[in-house]
Fold:
Amino acid sequence: MILASDYDGTLKINNVISDSDRQAIEQFRSQGNKFGIVTGRSIGMIRNELKLMQLNYDFIIGGNGAVIADENGQVIRQNNIELEDAMQLINYVCHDKNNMIGVSNGVEFGNIQDGCINEEHNTNDLIETEMVNGYDIICSNKINSFYFKAETLYKTKQMYEVCKEMLKGRVNFHFNNGIIDATAYDIDKKTGVLKLKELFDGDIHVIGDGYNDLPMIEYFGGYTLTHADEVIKEKASQVFDNIAQCIQTIQINKK
Structure:
């Protein structure tokens, strides 16, 4: 079996991975199953943190499906955004100096414009990470994903709708937890998890608690947690209290 889990808000809650979840994952992997993370973060945003958290894994799917790393955190697959599309997005977001936008090459990440953010909606701290100059990533023409937001949540939602229309059919946008992520077109967590079929054998299970998890939850008949929004619970096949309960249930069902 393969279990792909969202990270922030699903496995890491209030900046902690519980001992029970960590132990359940180790027991799951010890039986020959595969466990990994599927996240909106770049690989560099999470790789060192997982090491610090003492969490072993078989894969990381980062950038909402745009990049895949192996059990050592080394990139093995990625889909990048075309430079022309990237520049159009940057020019639009940066027209307002209060907007924040950052970019990733799949591993490294850095801001292009820091902005002036009055509302904080993302409560997950980045641990053991170091930013680079975002312009260096742009100049390298290896643009894997963007993350950006406006000064307020209301303005961020407006910007999300504009960007979807402006780059329709060219770039995918993922709105979650007050932040907009951008990836190459037709890339999301579902497509990232589907790539696992080329790497591993076994039935695929997924779990997540955010709106950017919906593509994989709907496609794989996936799971969510009790604290998720009702919209996500309605789409999930089962709702669990935690990852440990999820693992216990899918192991029992396999028997």
Notes: The first strand starts at residue 2 and ends at 5. Residues 147 and 181 are 4 Å apart (CA to CA).
